[in-house]
UniProtKB/TrEMBL annotation:
Native organism: Thermoflavimicrobium daqui
Source superkingdom: Bacteria
SUPFAM superfamilies in the record: L,D-transpeptidase catalytic domain-like (SSF141523)
Pfam name, any one: YkuD
Protein name (Swiss-Prot/TrEMBL): L,D-TPase catalytic domain-containing protein
Listed pathway(s): Cell wall biogenesis; peptidoglycan biosynthesis
PROSITE patterns associated with the record: LD_TPASE
Family: Belongs to the YkuD family.
Length: 117
């Protein structure tokens, strides 16, 4: 069973299989005014680009969107790789496209996601 731990202060996403870290990825997180919300969530959608998301195409979300159980928040790729490691988003978790594509191969709908400061 897989789960995700996000540590905002480290700007890292950790993928666990049971209790063991199997992958670690750098991430971009929310700006001070639009912080990434801490808490426990689930993956509720997986949408590869170029499919559309309600409200428009996913081009702003890079190559993949992993929607969280908190509406309007997710883990996604980016077409601005220089934003990784920075406070840049409106609260979402940004990843390099290759990283979010790899992550999407592991996780399923319902995967647990815990976000900590």
């Amino acid at each position: 069973m897989y789960s995700i731990l996000i540590i905002l202060s480290k700007r890292r996403l950790y993928l666990y299989r049971n209790t063991r870290i199997i992958r670690s990825y750098p991430i971009g997180i929310g700006k001070i005014a639009t912080r990434t919300p801490v808490g426990n969530y689930r993956i509720v959608s997986k949408v590869p680009y170029p499919y559309t998301y309600p409200g428009g195409p996913l081009t702003a979300f890079g190559s993949y969107w992993l929607g969280l159980s908190r509406p309007h928040y997710g883990i996604h790729g980016t077409n601005r790789p220089s934003s990784i490691g920075k406070l840049v988003s409106k609260g979402c978790i940004r990843m390099y496209n290759r990283d979010v594509e790899e992550l999407a191969r592991y996780v399923k709908i319902g995967t647990f996601v815990s976000i900590h400061r």
